Every structure is written in C-alpha cells, then in structure tokens.
Amino acid sequence: MGGMPEFASITALDALLADVRVGKERRRQLAMVRGEMERALARGGLPVGARRSLRRLLEKEALGTYLRLAESGALRARQLAGGYPPTSPATNEARLQCLQLVRKAYGMPPLRLGNGGRTPLRPTPDYGTLAALRRELDQNLATAMSPGLTRLTALLALVLDAAPRAGELTALRLHHLAPGGQAVYVERRPQRGAVETDSAWYPLSPVGRAALERWLAVRARLVERAHGTSRLWVSLFVNHAGLPDADGNAVLRPPGMPLEEKGLISSYRTGRARYGLTSLLPPKMEQLRRAVLDQAPPVPLAAAPATLPPSGQRAPAPHRPVPAARQGPQ
Questions:
Q1: Which of 73, 106, 139 is the last residue of a domain?
Q2: Which of 158-162, 310-314, 316-320 has the highest average model confidence (pLDDT)?
Q3: In the chain, how many domains are there?
Q4: DSSP element (H, E) containing 98
Q5: Confidence at residue 307, expressed as pLDDT on a 0 to 100 scale
Q6: Rounded Cα distance, 182 and 203, in Å
Q7: Cα–Cα nearest to 304, from 198, 161, 202, 212
C-alpha cells in the first residue's frame, strides 16, 4: 500500500512490526494480517477506538470481530475465482499465530479467541527445547549410530538450520549441497499456490555439516544397491512399490530408492519414538519447523557459495571411520 496509513493504530502497528525479527514467510503472513486489519478499519467493521489505539486494536473485542470478517473472506485483498470465499483452515491458523505474536511483541498476554470452527495450532517447542535438541544431535554424532538414527539426525539438523517444509526436504538433491556441506539450497514450495521468493542458500551449522557428512556415507552404500539417484534422502530397507505387477505380485524396491514425502514424514514420526526423542521433538515435523521460524529464523546467504559443483555431480566428501553401530530395531 502506498502513502501513510489512514489510522494511527496501523501506523503504530507498522512501527511494531518493523522491530519484530521473523523469517520471510512469517513476515508475509504478518503483512497479510496488517492489510486485513486496515481494510476492516476502513470499512468501519471494528470498534472506533481501534482506529486510534494499537492496544484497542489488539484487544479481544476488536480481534474477535476482525477474525470473523477475515475468515469469511470479506477482507481479501483481491477476488479469488470471481468472488471472496472463506479463507482456508491453514490460513486461519497462520492468522491466529500472527495475532499472538503481535500481542506478545506489544507486551500483551496470550489471548483465547475461541475456536470459531478452527483447528487450534499444535504447540511448538520452546527455545530451551530447541537448544537441548541441538545438544542431543551433537552428542549423537560423537557415537556410533544406526542408519536410521544417522538419517534422522541429518534431517533434524537441516530443519534446525534452514526450516524447510517436508516437501522441500524431499526435493533436495546432492547438487543442493555446497562443497564441504557448508550450505544447502532450499527451493521453497509454498502451500495454497502462494508466490514465495526466498528460495536461497542457507548456511549449515557445524552440527548440520557433520550430520550430513555421516548420512552421505551411509547413503552412498545404500544407493549402490539400487539404480542410483541424486536425491538426498533414500530408503533404508526393501519395500514395495504400492502397485502389484501383471501377475498380482508385490513389486519390491531395494534399499537406496528415493524417499518420498510420505516416507520422510513417517521416518520422523517413527524415529521420534524409536530413538527416545519424544521429550525433544513434537509429534509433527511442521511444529518443529514453526518453532525454528519463530525463535531463530534462518538467514540466507547473500550470495551462492563459491565453486559450486555441476548440477547433480556432487560426490560425498571423505568420511572419517566411526565405530560399528549397535544393532537395534529400524
């Protein structure tokens, strides 16, 4: 929007948001909420006091009305399919999270706004839990790990460093890793068809680099048994393709085949319980990603790492030998 805001509360909101440290995705969601609030004020849909005071705008009376209008689709910036349909449950959840973030930044306590038909957001790990998770991954890397724990450790390290979605993790290939594992390129795949521009190289922490180094050694052995693939995440065991052959028999797939999104999410869920991480990891990987975005949003590199390898040609770096892993369920 051009020019100065018409309402003092929106001017104050702009100043508040300018000092909030969040990632680009959350910044876009906050901009959506800001625009909806300004349109609600312009249409006279909120209490008069909310025009002049940011505190009044963030109080329960104004927010309850704003949420009903926003969820109905009445505050959309543009038509969708020739109309203004209600916003999706995912958008409603993001809107609620943004409101709580803004209230916290303003020094106001969390507010129960009523479910209004919405599915409440699952809680995310706090800062201390994320720090403990990083320590746990670092300790894992000092020991022998099974292939399953090695893969999970590398996957979690990437989520902590770059906050990719499950689909973005699944799409990673070897050429998305910079030489020496110094950075990873994440091609953002936003939901609901939204345009997203923050596909970028993200630096990896020492834990992230070490975790990837361990996984690449395991991955190389697995891929040798299959047809070969450039995908970063591959299966650990024989599985079936999901469709029978012409004779009705199951089609088996060897280890080392590309891991699809469903399999990656399943590996997170089962690994969380199998490796005793239930106190550090939330039930869903998306909760972990949101925690990273809220508490320590990853900062992309200003430029691509130097001396990138040709697409699809990156070979795993040399690996130091580690003790044989203890055998256990996979």
A1: 106
A2: 158-162
A3: 2
A4: helix 89-106
A5: 59
A6: 6
A7: 202
The three state secondary structure string of 40-66 is HHHCCCCCCHHHHCHHHHCCHHHHHHH
**C-alpha span between 45 and 66 (Å, rounded):** 8
How many Cα atoms are found within 13 Å in the side-chain-facing hemisphere of 87? 24
Q: What 3-state class would DSSP assign to 303?
A: coil
Structure tokens at 77: 């910036």
Is position 265 within any domain? Answer: yes
> Are 252 and 179 in contact, with CB atoms under 8 Å apart?
no
Whether the CB-CB separation of 198 and 298 falls below 8 Å is answered with no
Structure tokens at 109: 């306590």
**Domain match, 75 and 192 both:** no
Pairing, β 200-203 against β 183-186: antiparallel
Q: Which residues of 194-212 are buried (b: 16+ CB within 10 A; e: fewer)?
A: eeeeeebbbbbbebbbbbb
40-62: average pLDDT: 92
Q: The tokens of 47 are what?
A: 């209490």
Q: Which helix (H) or strand (E) holds 140?
A: helix 127-140
Residue 216 forms part of a structural domain: yes
What is the mean predicted confidence (pLDDT) over 214-221?
Answer: 95
pLDDT digits over 243-273, tens only? 555 555 655 668 889 999 999 999 999 999 9
Find residue 136's DSSP bridge partners. none
Is the pTM for the entire model greater than 0.85? no
Two tokens, residue 309 = 């390898």
Closest to 212 (Cα-Cα) out of 125, 268, 277, 137: 137
Q: What is the domain range of residue 257?
A: 127-295
- Which of 165, 145, 184, 195 has the alpha carbon at shortest distance from 322? 145
Residue 68 domain-assigned (yes or no): yes
Instruction: Name the pairing type of β-strands 239-244 and 200-203.
Output: unpaired
Same domain, 87 and 145: no
| Backbone angles phi and psi of 25, in degrees to 5 | -65, -45
Apex CA 73: angle with CA 68 and CA 79, to 5°? 165
